[in-house]
Automatic annotation (TrEMBL):
Residues 120-267 form the N-acetyltransferase domain. This is GNAT family N-acetyltransferase. One of its GO terms (molecular function) is acyltransferase activity, transferring groups other than amino-acyl groups. Signal peptide: none annotated. The keyword Transferase applies. It comes from Silvanigrella paludirubra. InterPro entries: Acyl_CoA_acyltransferase (IPR016181), GNAT_dom (IPR000182). Transmembrane segments: none annotated. It comes from the Bacteria. Keywords: Transferase. It holds the Pfam family Acetyltransf_1.
């Protein structure tokens, strides 16, 4: 794999493609210009095309073949922001892609993190170590991403819940009801934070932040030196409150990506 953005790409690409390479090699392909993975699930969360290089002469034809490969499933299409020429928008629009969002990659030096210095309310946070706990995790997102259950169940069946698994899943509970979830992916001495989702009925109450900060502490305690995440950002600076929040607590902006979707779904 090509890691244009160093450790950040290493975390992101290994997270995207660790499971397909380990469990389903027949539907994982790595070429000079593209990396593809297709799953049995009808969701662009799990069907992914990563663009390493853009050849202007062959790009449109390459995308047509990619659509054919994934058909009839939706998929997400990721680009490096710095390598995205304007003419691609016209081609992608013509092929019925829709721009999902701009992504910004951010990192945190966990050597500088100390949960004890923060004043946060204590809530029950569960690390998933059984099928029953996984069901509780999935209950939070079933309504919004029905395909997730089959995908995560397959992962747990094949990999189990041991500490050797680079994936770790968590949920935060209120009155014994899971309402906010997230996952960590460990690779070498780094860690990525993914799959962050809070049930709409419990948003803007600080629960996601509580889980978020607790997982930074967990990552540090389990040997990670840096934590990476991606978040959406807008070209309009006044709409990037979440990016500014991350910077305020110590995250640094590392890189940018552009994500398109072909007839997709996802939260």
């Amino acid at each position: 794999m090509i890691y244009q953005n160093g450790n950040f790409d290493e975390i992101l690409l290994n997270k995207f493609f660790f499971i397909p390479k380990k469990l389903n090699n027949d539907n994982y392909y790595e070429f000079d210009d593209l990396i593809l993975t297709k799953t049995p699930y009808h969701s662009s969360l799990f069907n992914i095309c990563w663009v390493n290089k853009i050849n202007p002469i062959y790009f449109e034809n390459s995308m047509k073949k990619t659509i054919e490969y994934f058909s009839p499933k939706p998929f997400s299409l990721w680009f490096y922001s710095d390598d995205f020429p304007d003419f691609l928008n016209e081609i992608l629009n013509k092929l019925s892609f829709s721009k999902k969002n701009n992504k910004i990659g951010m990192s945190y030096d966990l050597n500088n993190f100390d949960l004890n210095k923060l004043s946060i309310e204590k809530h029950k946070i569960t690390e998933i170590r059984s099928d029953n706990e996984l069901d509780e995790f999935l209950n939070v997102i079933d309504e919004y991403e029905p395909c997730a259950r089959g995908y995560f169940k397959k992962i747990s069946k094949e990999l189990g819940f041991s500490k050797d698994n680079p994936y770790r899943y968590f949920y935060l509970s209120i009155f014994d009801k899971p309402i906010s979830i997230a996952s960590l992916y460990f690779h070498n001495e780094n860690c990525g934070l993914f799959d962050v989702f809070t049930h709409p009925n419990f948003r803007r109450k600080g629960y996601a932040l509580n889980l978020f900060l607790s997982l930074l502490d967990y990552a540090k305690m389990n040997g990670a030196k840096k934590l990476f995440l991606t978040t959406s950002f807008s070209e309009k600076s006044n709409e990037n409150k979440l990016v500014e929040f991350y910077k305020k607590i110590g995250f640094h902006e590392d890189c940018k990506y552009i994500c398109f979707e072909y007839e997709g779904s996802g939260f």
